[in-house]
């Protein structure tokens, strides 16, 4: 008798629990770069995003979510196919994760026209911030020019008057140097565009020495930046001409590949692991515990995207089909950002503080960034006026 | 003027690095008639092993000593397991198979060493710079690379011109069957030649390690230039590889260094820089096209 009533109670409990369990998880599709040399960028983005989900036991904002991840191999065509599959086969409504701007430009406009939400964790090309902006497109990281604008302003404020610029010869290279020049007030000792993917910079460094600038600013993502820094130090120019750059060449994983070479280099960023906000401590500690390494910028951006989506999902109670409600929930950005203050500008890119930081060696022999100061506070981007959002 | 001399040195150094790569590739191609796209992978293996051993032991020389046999051994294994089956096949099959090897090795390095690039520094005794030309300090390490390249060139010359193995290799290259009939163990010879080729690629990788980022896929960017070199020099010819490597090194470096200034004479600065940067990156291919129009088999073809 006793046994039977326990059994009935258990069955009742199961039935009661049923609807809750049956509530379908919200599917989020992550298209990111996990292979090629740049594969660690996607790895960091994914780990950051997943961490936010794990910290809530499979939920974001209390709503069960399922994260689908696929590797775009840095190829726009492949990314488009993945987006198609996520949308048509898997029934995904929210997409995120693209690392590279050229991939984002290929995927995002098509996706948002199909009434999907896209939240960018990294790529912030000017096209998508300006003329190509869209109500369904959000960028939680930065507009591409931001990390360069900080350094341009900082270098001018610090009294450098004759700066030498270096970037690869492709559209993003020109954009980034353009960002630097927007707030830089001095003269240019030279503006050099190198081959994309170039590994040897001996010729450029010799020309740089001959031009005798009082500072160098470079945008050379990935291995290009490592090569340039190593060779710059070997030419012993680092002792006389200080180097500046955007955060891209100085994340916590790349730094272990350049070590002493990068010490003292100042770079611009919207986030560093040492920012003193409670939400940031929580994130950095949890990430270190889960992965045994200090999170990079990219991990922070993945984490923030997840937390932003969590706040929105909570507001709409998991009902992602009401697009207008979901959009305005995301736009309100009602979450405790690890960057402190965070809000969306009219073109749905961040309004945030931007910092200058310096590469230092820690006591335990690793290399990391130390935040020096905020150069811009509540900074938006110049493309807001170009954006006519419908 | 000083800047020009310095850029000549830079061109020479790039040329020498390219020579180390192309000597091995052209040797394998000329003798075994096999197109080996995976040559860059052995360069990468050399760099990875050297970076790892150097980091563990703290000695660059130990890193070098470990990387050379490692690259040669992996090369000989690949020859025995994969390439041996491809000698009689079409060149297209060889290209496909060795392209597969590139992916295999890139993925393997990612699995073993992870995705982030490794660190490798210049050895302390080669850090700093020397004023070879007064007023122009030049990194000692790059001078060492030039010295090693010249040394390897001399050793290769001695090996081929003055030793029995060198004679057998040359015989095997001109006529495989005849050399076999005369008692040369062609199978063993091929394995050894391939090992020598990959050893040279590994050496180039070790030398590049302190200058460049040691990362998966680092072999591909130099591989393209290496192919340009052997096409210019004449496929299968070591002397051709030397001439081609120096030409490509000089053309690439001098183009990057001086084209912008040249274009600024008659164009506005912004336009000039854009055009010059684009032209500089095409320069070696233009050079290759010109050489091929003039001498379709390369500057110094291997067999007549």
UniProtKB/TrEMBL annotation, chain B:
CDD domains: TM_PBP1_LivH_like. The keyword Cell inner membrane does not apply. The keyword Cell membrane applies. It is a multi-pass membrane protein. GO terms for biological process: amino acid transport. Pfam families: BPD_transp_2 (PF02653). InterPro entries: ABC_BtuC-like, ABC_transp_permease, BCAA_transport_permease. One of its GO terms (cellular component) is plasma membrane. The chain crosses the membrane at residues 12-30, 37-55, 61-83, 95-113, 141-160, 188-212, 224-249, 261-294. It is found in: Cell membrane. It comes from the Bacteria. Keywords: Amino-acid transport, Cell membrane, Membrane, Transmembrane, Transmembrane helix, Transport. One of its GO terms (molecular function) is transmembrane transporter activity. PANTHER family: ABC TRANSPORTER ATP-BINDING PROTEIN, BRANCHED-CHAIN AMINO ACID TRANSPORT SYSTEM PERMEASE PROTEIN LIVH. Belongs to the binding-protein-dependent transport system permease family. LivHM subfamily. This is Branched-chain amino acid ABC transporter permease. It comes from Desulfosarcina ovata subsp. ovata.
């Amino acid at each position: 008798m006793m046994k039977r009533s326990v059994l009935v109670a258990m069955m009742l409990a199961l039935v009661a629990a049923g609807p809750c369990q049956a509530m379908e998880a919200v599917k989020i599709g992550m298209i990111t770069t996990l292979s090629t040399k740049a594969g660690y960028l996607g790895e960091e983005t994914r780990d950051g995003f997943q961490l936010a989900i794990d910290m809530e036991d499979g939920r974001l904002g209390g709503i069960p979510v399922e994260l689908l991840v696929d590797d775009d191999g840095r190829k726009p065509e492949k990314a488009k196919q993945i987006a198609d599959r996520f949308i048509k086969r898997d029934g995904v409504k929210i997409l995120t994760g693209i690392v590279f701007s050229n991939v984002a430009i290929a995927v995002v406009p098509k996706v948002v026209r199909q009434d999907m939400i896209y939240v960018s964790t990294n790529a912030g090309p000017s096209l998508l911030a300006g003329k190509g902006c869209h109500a369904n497109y959000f960028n939680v990281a930065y507009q591409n020019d931001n990390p360069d604008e900080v350094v341009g302003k900082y270098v001018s404020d610090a009294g450098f008057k004759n700066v030498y610029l270096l970037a690869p010869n492709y559209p993003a290279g020109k954009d980034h140097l353009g960002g630097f020049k927007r707030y830089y007030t001095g003269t240019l000792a030279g503006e050099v565009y190198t081959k994309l993917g170039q590994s040897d910079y001996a010729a450029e460094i010799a020309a740089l020495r001959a031009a005798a600038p009082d500072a160098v600013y470079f945008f050379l993502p990935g291995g290009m930046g490592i090569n340039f820094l190593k060779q710059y130090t070997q030419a012993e120019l680092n002792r006389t001409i200080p180097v500046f750059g955007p955060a891209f060449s100085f994340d916590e994983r790349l730094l272990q590949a350049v070590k002493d070479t990068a010490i003292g280099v100042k770079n611009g960023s919207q986030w560093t692991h040492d920012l003193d906000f409670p939400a940031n401590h929580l994130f950095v500690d949890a990430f270190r515990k889960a992965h045994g390494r200090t999170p990079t910028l990219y991990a922070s951006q993945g984490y923030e995207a997840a937390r932003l989506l969590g706040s929105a999902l909570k507001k709409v109670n998991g009902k992602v089909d009401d697009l207008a409600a979901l959009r305005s929930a995301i736009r309100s950005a009602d979450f405790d950002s690890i960057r402190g203050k965070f809000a969306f500008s009219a073109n749905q890119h961040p309004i945030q503080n931007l910092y200058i930081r310096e590469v230092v060696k820690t006591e335990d022999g690793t290399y990391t960034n130390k935040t020096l100061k905020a150069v811009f506070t509540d900074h938006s981007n110049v493309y807001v006026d170009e954006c006519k959002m419908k | 003027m000083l800047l020009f001399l310095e850029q000549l040195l830079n061109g020479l150094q790039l040329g020498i690095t390219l020579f180390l790569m192309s000597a091995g590739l052209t040797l394998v191609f000329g003798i075994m008639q096999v197109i080996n796209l995976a040559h860059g992978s052995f360069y990468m293996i050399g760099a990875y092993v050297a970076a790892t051993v150097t980091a563990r032991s703290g000695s660059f020389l130990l890193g070098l000593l470990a990387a050379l046999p490692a690259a040669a051994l992996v090369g000989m294994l690949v020859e025995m397991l994969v390439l041996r089956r491809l000698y009689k096949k079409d060149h297209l099959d060889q290209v496909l198979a060795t392209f597969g090897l590139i992916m295999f090795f890139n993925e393997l390095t990612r699995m073993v060493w992870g995705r982030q690039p490794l660190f490798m520094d210049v050895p302390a005794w080669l850090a700093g710079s020397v004023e070879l030309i007064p007023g122009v300090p030049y990194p000692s390490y790059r001078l060492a690379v030039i010295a090693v390249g010249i040394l390897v060139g001399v050793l290769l010359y001695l090996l081929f011109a003055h030793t029995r193995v060198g004679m057998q290799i040359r015989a095997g290259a001109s006529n495989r069957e005849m050399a076999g009939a005369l008692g040369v163990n062609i199978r063993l010879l091929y394995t050894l030649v391939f090992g020598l080729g990959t050893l040279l690629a590994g050496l180039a990788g070790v030398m590049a390690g302190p200058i460049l980022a040691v990362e998966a896929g680092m072999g591909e960017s130099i591989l393209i230039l290496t192919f340009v070199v052997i096409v210019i020099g004449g496929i299968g010819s070591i002397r051709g590889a030397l001439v081609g490597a120096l030409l490509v090194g000089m053309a690439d470096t001098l183009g990057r260094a001086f084209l912008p200034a040249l274009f600024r004479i008659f164009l506005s600065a912004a336009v000039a820089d854009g055009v010059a940067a684009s032209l500089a990156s095409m320069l070696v291919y233009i050079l290759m096209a010109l050489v091929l129009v003039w001498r379709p088999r390369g500057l110094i073809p291997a067999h007549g």
